[in-house]
Design a protein that fits this description.
By secondary structure, the protein is α+β, with helices and mostly antiparallel strands. It is built from four helices and five strands. The strands form two sheets. The protein has a three-stranded antiparallel beta sheet. Strands 1-5 form a two-stranded antiparallel ribbon.
């Protein structure tokens, strides 16, 4: 929630049913996931024009990325910074909501998830983040991990 208004700023949807590779173009230096804003990283991937199948986690979110209405912005994959600021910082509230909806607390958050960030020195790797432990590392883009999707409310 926004600290000033109490209104939710971002909505998170955990995609835990399937593990996806970050990208299939390992070692290529396209610099598409280098910012601290997941929405901007998605735009970089879309603008790279490299075709479907090259960035599986982004292909997955682009299926719903164009969804737009009077109240919602498009879906995207959070950056590493957003995983820390939005997911880790609010993990207690997220776990409570998951439990309230019939899920199991800690199941969703205690694992590694892809971020939308590439390693800025080795572009064959990208960042993963574990919201329960506030830890992250870089792994090969061909490795499969689950993905969080995020969107924001429009005001």
């Amino acid at each position: 929630c926004d600290d000033d208004t109490g209104k939710p700023e971002k909505i998170v949807m955990a995609e835990v049913s399937s593990d996806l590779a970050w990208g299939s173009m390992t070692g290529e230096t396209y610099h598409v996931g280098t910012g601290d804003d997941g929405d901007e990283n998605l735009i970089r991937v879309q603008n790279a024009g490299l075709g479907s199948g090259n960035f599986p986690i982004f292909d997955d979110v682009m299926v719903i990325a164009d969804f737009d209405s009077a109240n919602w912005k498009k879906w995207y994959i959070p950056s590493y910074e957003e995983m820390v600021e939005d997911i880790y910082r609010n993990r207690t509230q997220i776990e409570a909501a998951v439990t309230k909806l019939g899920g199991v607390s800690n199941i969703v958050l205690d694992q590694d998830y892809w971020t939308s960030n590439e390693d800025n020195t080795d572009f064959s790797k990208a960042w993963i983040f574990n919201p329960a432990t506030k830890s992250g590392s870089t792994v090969a883009k061909s490795t499969a991990y689950p993905v969080f999707r995020m969107t924001e409310l429009k005001y």
